[in-house]
Amino acid sequence: MPSSTKPDKKPENVASVLKVFSVLETLSEEGSASLARIAQKAMTSKATTHRLLQTMRDLGYVEQQAQSDEYRLTLKLFSLSAQALEGQDRLLKATESGMARLSQETGEAINLGVIDETGQDVVYIRQIESSYALSLKCTVGSRNRLYCTALGKALLAWRDAAEVDACLQKMSFAPVGPQTLADASAFRNDLAQTKAQGFAEEIEESEAGVRCMAVPVRDQTGQSVAAVSIAFPLFRYDADHRENYIALLTQVGRETSEALGYRG
Description:
Blueprint: H1 10-30, E1 32-33, H2 35-42, H3 46-59, E2 62-64, E3 71-73, H4 76-86, H5 89-106, E4 109-115, E5 121-128, E6 143-145, H6 150-157, H7 161-170, H8 184-197, E7 200-203, E8 210-218, E9 224-233, H9 242-259
Antiparallel strand pairs: 1-3, 2-3, 4-5, 4-9, 5-6, 7-8, 8-9
Helix pairs in contact: 1-2, 2-3, 5-9, 6-8
Keywords: DNA-binding, Transcription, Transcription regulation
Domain HTH iclR-type: 14-75
Pfam families: HTH_IclR, IclR_C
């Protein structure tokens, strides 16, 4: 008697979803691109890529430029992103004045980041750009590895040991900058130092010529839910003002955490 059990199509469905996101990420990186370029970068056939693009166009997420026939994303995805950020509304409001104060006092780029869904990356959800012409910029929604950023260290140092262990098991510690930490042992030591001193720091671990300092933003449970950082070009970092930078950051971290219910 034939089995009535339906075949498991999950692998095929997952593969289709992965292809969709490969196309979306390619368009996000390229701005606009031809069918051939998208297929090449997304590593899918032209026929599959064309079919996906037509579906995305029908749904309003992609448009095709009349003059060049290149494809680009529409603002519909921005609307989805804006709705996602509304879920962080309390956090964004709590950090607003403190980040503005850091910006006014230092003139440098001020970043707010959270841990992403994979537990491997920090996602930037707000930035106040530097007042200097030569400055460090990142876009809202961009990501960087937890193990090579001051934001990542500040986020993990105030998380449960079990969660930290789970994150560390997945980390590759592939070099990102000239001084990227080499392994889990070095990173654990850095996390311990970060928690002991109350702030995180990295020097050229994520990018050559860049130095960052960060503090956690903690909720009523005492765990970090976000982190705030100052990003300096190395040539503009003033060691004589180090204690002032630390004092400013820790004050902002404390005030923001208290606004979220932390009473430590």
